[in-house]
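Each record in this resource describes a single protein on a pair of labelled lines. The shape at a given residue is found from the number at the same position. The record below illustrates this layout:

***
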Amino acid sequence: MRKRMLLTKLVAAISSKKRIWAIFLIIILLAVGVYFFRSLFIVATVNGQPIWRLTLIRELEKQSGKEALDTLISKTLVLQEAKKQNAAVSGEEIDQEIKKLEENFSKQGQDLNQLLSTQGISREELMEEVRFQKIVEKIVGKDINVTDQEVSNYLKQNENLLPKDSNTEELKSTVKRRLEQQKMNEKIQSWIESLQDSAKIIYFR
């Protein structure tokens, strides 16, 4: 009986030590995890005092949370609609569009990669943005058309603002693209509003 009690106490002591070591090990692992992944929780320190990422997120939500949320909702609706309509953009199309951007900036003596770096935008983010824009254009831009009469009217209405020594055909081409983009933007805005009106959007506050 006495031996059994001693054995029970010994087992209890060993179990207790194991629990202590397990707790100690967990604390060490948590400390190591926080150290190596501190950027997930802390965005900066000021004289040793941390500024928590959650605090930053809450502050950003106060300042521009509504606009950011609206943008995310709109993008989600567009991508959902694109899936319904099987509107896809190939990698080749994205590469071609980025090549155009590079050429346009190069003509102005600028480098696309440097501009992206200045704005804090990665090339992957640019590719994703181009993909999104091309998807929208495929869905909405099917019936966009600018007539010669519309171009002529624009030139007449804005002749005082246009450069005098411009090539007429180049000017007409530029104006036509500008009017197409204007019509596209108006149609996109109207289309997104219709998607929002017909969608079931639930906000969590």
In short: Residues 87-142 form one domain. Residues 32-36 have pLDDT under 50 and may be disordered. The two ends are 64 Å apart (CA to CA). The first helix runs from residue 2 to 36.
